[in-house]
Amino acid sequence: MTSPVRPSTGALRPLGLHDVTIDGGFWGERQALNAAATIPHVEAWLERLGWTGNFDAAVEGRLPADRAGREFSDSEIYKLLEGMAWEIGRTGSVGLEARFTALAARVSAAQEPDGYLNTMFGRPGQKPRYSDLQWGHELYCFGHLIQAGVARARTHGHDAFVETVVRAADHVCEQFGPDGDQRVCGHPEIEVALAELARVTGERRYLDQARAFVERRGHGVLGDIELGTAYFQDDVPVRETEVFAGHAVRALYLAAGAVDVALETGDDELLAAVAAATTRTLARRTYLTGGMGAHHEGESFGVDFELPPDRSYSETCAGIASVMLNHRLLLATGEARYADAVERTLFNVVATSPAADGRGFYYTNTLHQRVPGKEVVPDEVSPRASSSLRAPFFAVSCCPTNLTRTFASLGAYVATASDDGVQLQQYAPGAVRASLPAGPVELAVRTAYPADGRIEVEVVQAPVGAWDLTLRVPAWAVGATVAVDDGAPAPADPGYVTVAGPGAGGVVVLDLPMAPRWTFPDPRIDAVRGQVAVERGPIVMALESVDLESVDLDSVGLGADVGAVRVRTDVAPRVHDGRVQVPVTVVEVADGDWPYGQAAGPAAGQERCVDLVEYHAWAERGPSTMRVWMPVR
Amino acid sequence: MTSPVRPSTGALRPLGLHDVTIDGGFWGERQALNAAATIPHVEAWLERLGWTGNFDAAVEGRLPADRAGREFSDSEIYKLLEGMAWEIGRTGSVGLEARFTALAARVSAAQEPDGYLNTMFGRPGQKPRYSDLQWGHELYCFGHLIQAGVARARTHGHDAFVETVVRAADHVCEQFGPDGDQRVCGHPEIEVALAELARVTGERRYLDQARAFVERRGHGVLGDIELGTAYFQDDVPVRETEVFAGHAVRALYLAAGAVDVALETGDDELLAAVAAATTRTLARRTYLTGGMGAHHEGESFGVDFELPPDRSYSETCAGIASVMLNHRLLLATGEARYADAVERTLFNVVATSPAADGRGFYYTNTLHQRVPGKEVVPDEVSPRASSSLRAPFFAVSCCPTNLTRTFASLGAYVATASDDGVQLQQYAPGAVRASLPAGPVELAVRTAYPADGRIEVEVVQAPVGAWDLTLRVPAWAVGATVAVDDGAPAPADPGYVTVAGPGAGGVVVLDLPMAPRWTFPDPRIDAVRGQVAVERGPIVMALESVDLESVDLDSVGLGADVGAVRVRTDVAPRVHDGRVQVPVTVVEVADGDWPYGQAAGPAAGQERCVDLVEYHAWAERGPSTMRVWMPVR
Lengths: 633, 633
Known about the structure:
Two copies of one chain form a homodimer. The first copy, chain A, has helices at 25-48, 53-59, 73-91, 94-109, 138-155, 160-176, 190-201, 204-216, 248-265, 268-284, 316-333, 336-350, 398-408, 545-549, and strands spanning 13-14, 20-22, 368-369, 381-382, 393-394, 415-418, 421-424, 430-436, 439-447, 454-461, 468-473, 481-484, 490-491, 495-500, 507-511, 517-521, 531-536, 539-544, 565-567, 574-576, 579-586, 596-597, 604-611, 613-614, 626-627, 630-631. The first copy, chain A, is of the alpha+beta class. A seven-stranded antiparallel beta sheet of chain A has the order 2-8-9-10-15-12-13. Chains A and B meet through helix 10, strand 16 and strand 22 of A and helix 10, strand 16 and strand 22 of B. Chains A, B: Residues 19-411 form the Non-reducing end beta-L-arabinofuranosidase-like GH127 catalytic domain. Chains A, B: Residues 517-631 form the Non-reducing end beta-L-arabinofuranosidase-like GH127 C-terminal domain. Chains A, B: Pfam families: Beta-AFase-like_GH127_cat (PF07944), Glyco_hydro127C (PF20737), Glyco_hydro127M (PF20736).
């Protein structure tokens, strides 16, 4: 039961942290780094900035005078607690357990007798409770508190912190129930949290409240704001939403909560509406990386096909929210394309945010950096949307804490089960265990994916009865093959490939084609017309100026102006010395007084091969410029 | 002396509203509409919203309780007063004179004994004076007050309102002089105003204060803000500025003031710095329309070549500010390229903002509208950056009032004089009079420009002595000719063409080539790669969806998705039935689940010709989509 999402119905059921072990590799290393570096880093920053201390100040009657941070800062402590809880569940760390308990106790101590808990509202000198639902984030904070409680309950069981969480949820239900305040929070999050708490506790009341919040929204209950009511999804009811719009994280959290509500209440119409909106959003409002949100203004989705790479907001939290939503839709429908979206977003948004040392983060994830980023001052808080180099912490610091809980719970995305068998959704070395109607099964997965496309699955323990082993073949993996034991490889089309009942000791090998490939954009995406990207497996590649400097292109005075490089797409990108390379020539551009007039000359000069970098690893070598989409010669 | 800018030195001197008459045509019609519709419209809205009433409330002690509008709303009344003053100077309207006097009296009544005048600050319950220089706009408001006073003094002479203005300026000099507050205002404007007041009054003190404001800025005197100190140009001193950055209107007003200060103090280094920054900004940070400001966030310039057409903020006021700056540089240097920039910006930004009825306005001027704009609610105030259909007024309503003063003073941009003769800088039918050392001269200009390229200049009165008649040949006008009397046309290269001493009755004909032409972007402008625009004379053309609907393209389900159209650039755009047309075909795009993958197919289907619309006239036929840059087949 140790997974963040446990629907009581749907096509697939998740396998949790006690069912799936990731042993090293791309994601295992990141989980280890999360535990060793990111969680302590975030813990220290929350203390240092006084955001954790707000709870102590509340207990000691020092609010509002001593309050630090923005109105939503409580939520950062909750997201960290959730991350710690999953990490404890994953590893059983005794040291972390002690830190969790101490931190949770400080939070619990600030809870008021009626269950209310927030350091920003309700005291003399503060705004009254729920007096600013548009921007106050009170229910948003409760949502993250509850998600932390769900993680704790699933990894540890009932304790004082879970008791705090249940009392907080009861307070919310009383305050906003059928006889209470009929409004919603400006920032969705409570929906997904209450739905999951209902799953943990079996209390229908929480589900009803989650449903109420989903249904109330979209009818203008929050009033207008300068950014427009679409900003917080109060312009159109969820079940009438055709495509996601407004603030991306808000839209995606809300949609995830709506899936939960739809599944638990058997509301097929609501589920279909969210699925259709997700489909259209993926087809028209999503970056190649899986990133969502094209506007810095309002941190919001653009309109269809408005996907400028240099303006991509693509907030890390929106990536996490997209993973949450697509994972829920995968469980609900069993359709591989949702797992494809999870994979793309994990490798190219979630993995891009943290620095190699786990102590710096991108808040936004641009696909095109025009000017070299500034060196980050190590001990300085950054503005949120500064996408130059990864920063240690932000004035609005949702992303680092959100990453802690995502990395700690990554195991939950790897595999699913159904009555028929086990489905491997993501590929990482490790073990997968499940209890099927046919009996228990255990798999050992061996792979260097995504560095290599070979995935070897050994059946360590086979069920007594009939069962299926199902492997996802990503949509990009045209030409994949699957081989059983020593059998000949057979073609495996994108979607799922199923092997019926391999016995103990049986080995299934999935081979995914990993040659780098050109990827062209839909011609309706104006911002990347005449440009092309390179992908290798699930990894989006990028052209970074530091790699251009290593090639002799200085005769054209290229400097950081990557815009003058042209690639030729009539030959495939090549792999050389383990690096993906593309052939480039340079366009010479004369400077003038006015940048409009004659057509530019053709690309000139000798063709050279330039290394690309994995997009998730860019800007690890100092200030640079970068582009995912490269002009075609 | 009736022009907004009267430097005491420089290459050229301006001719003012009493020297230049515009009789109908493109600009004459707009001047008439400004007087008949826009000025009364703005007047009524300022009353209706209570912004004018703030002055009455100040007098009656009803502030802050009864205050309406934002912190800078006083400035809108001042800009309107300036517009009225120029209009009175232009036409001598008795009715407008009465309205001006009444409105000015209400403003003057609110002035405090020490000269301070602002309805937002300094009273019990309001913030103290100058307690919020970052955002308070107090000196910005004083600047517009002073500019209104300058207009009044030049068109009418000293009166009670001018007295108010002088007392306000004296207050500013005392408050911010050598022994006073050493900071600056978050929004430049006071610089240009004080410099001009010094020119009007001969008082050196105002010039010194203007210079002090220019010099202080750029040293972090305002403190940091979330948008960064570049937002209000407090990061780099003006004389070290290499290219304009930050909030476009702020940057351009400041630069205009710096030119004034440089000229009046003989500071060649400062003048050269502003000229160089202007040159680089025109070459790298300016839209084809002349529009400036690529970011909605911070209403600011982007970096070099960051010019997305669909995100162009291109604020109307930034266009006006660019005209102000380029006009000053023209007067200072006598270089035709600054007059080119004025022309481009007037026709394609300033003329774009007002609706055909003079009662609606664009605040921002996008070059690509992706979704049809919403119908404007006639009596509703719009958010400032809503660029769909022209709106009657805005919550931040600088642009409509700024237009009133610009249209009323347009005559001042038409012609200049030097000791050698007269220079026609802009082409409009009417009369131009000047006093030269050689004697008085009067010209009659006959033209339908820009509908037609023929400009006929008749010398009605010739000076006694030697003189030159100089005509600007725009940079785009390759192939222009000039003919004197009945002589053969001679080639006239872009820049200036000079005719020596035509006598009374002599006629000089300039012929500018008006065939529509393809215009290609610099290859470093990523956002319009693979696209092309059409210009005809000084007019930028646009493809509007309402014109596509009139062509039989329905078989491809084109709808409003103009993005699927491709033009062929191997033939020139044609003129048919007086309309500019381009040949288009359509790209068929299949909808899929993911917009990245295979390259799209070639353009298909029958080629059709589609009318273009003058960019300044788009969206006059109801909601539509529009693009200036069209994808190439």
